[in-house]
Amino acid sequence: MKKIILILLLISMKQVFSQDLLIKDSPNIPHADTSLVFLPGGYDEAKSYPLLIMLHGWSGNYKQWDEVTGGLKKYADKYQFIIVCPDGFYDSWYVDSPVKLKSQFETFFTKELLPEVESKYRVDRSNIFITGLSMGGHGAMMMLLKHPDTFKSAGSTSGILDITEFPDRWSMLNALGRFTEKPENWKKNSDIFLLDKIKGLNKEVIFDCGTEDFAYNVNKRFNEKCLSLKIKATFISQPGNHSKQYWNKSIENHFRFFKALSENKPLQGADKR
């Protein structure tokens, strides 16, 4: 009996060690933020690991990516990344809201949550990546464009890469005010208007969108602007819509892309178009 209890305890300890919950409160957010953390198999305190932040979509939470992929632990193990999935508070759009005092997500994330992650886990600070789906795709790309010294690269799948195209959707006005009244709030936080911030910085980005997705044309225009600014961009276009099935299929290209960058290797096998 004691042997069985010991085995169960060891299994439980292993599970806790490979998956963690990081809960952090701040006056910059409406309530404590919960992040789901996955550590790679064989995690060693004597080593450092690339970090991948994964942002969820509108109306989702910190569990969304784990649910979409059927379990992120397999990716943490396969690519040897630390993976962190924070909560974006349903519809924060990951911005510092000019209209909601306790919705300063960008400040919370870059000044409080990310330093906490770096202090708690063995993060290779030269290899910090960020990606997301839909609202999270917008947020991930925005974080890189506003903080290129922090992130090596960013990705987006089905991302809303120009939020000004959707002024009446997904309660964005709660974070930014009405577009007709405060268009500058929107443009200061819209990826396509921020792209010039990384011009000449030798940054590489990856983004994809299904050809049947309502955000497809926005992604095409984002790619065209990357080309005009000579920003290194991998744009993947394939059949699909704005759905869990598409995101589950698309996201491994991001892992492969970031893994190659972390090892300073050329990317092979991605469907570039």
Query: What's the main sheet like?
Result: 8 strands, mixed
Number of strands: 8
- The CATH class name reads Alpha Beta
Low-confidence stretches: 1-16, 269-273
The CATH superfamily is known as: Alpha/Beta hydrolase fold, catalytic domain
Strand order of the largest sheet: 1-2-4-3-5-6-7-8
Class from secondary-structure proportions: alpha/beta
Measured on Cα atoms, how large is the radius of gyration?
A: 19 Å
Q: What is the total domain count?
A: 1
The helix/strand series, from N terminus to C terminus, equals HEEEHHEHEHEHHHEHEH
Q: Can you tell me the CATH topology?
A: Rossmann fold
Instruction: Determine the strand fraction and express it as a percent band.
Output: 15-25%
The name of the CATH architecture is 3-Layer(aba) Sandwich
Distance between the termini: 60 Å
Shape: globular
Determine the mean pLDDT.
Answer: 91
Helix content: 25-40%
Q: How many helices in DSSP terms?
A: 10
Features:
single chain; 273 residues; alpha/beta; 38% helix; disordered N terminus
General description of the model:
- The chain has one domain: Alpha/Beta hydrolase fold, catalytic domain (Rossmann fold, 3-Layer(aba) Sandwich), CATH 3.40.50.1820.
- 38% of the residues lie in helices and 19% in strands.
- The radius of gyration is 19 Å and the shape is globular.
- The N terminus and C terminus are likely disordered.
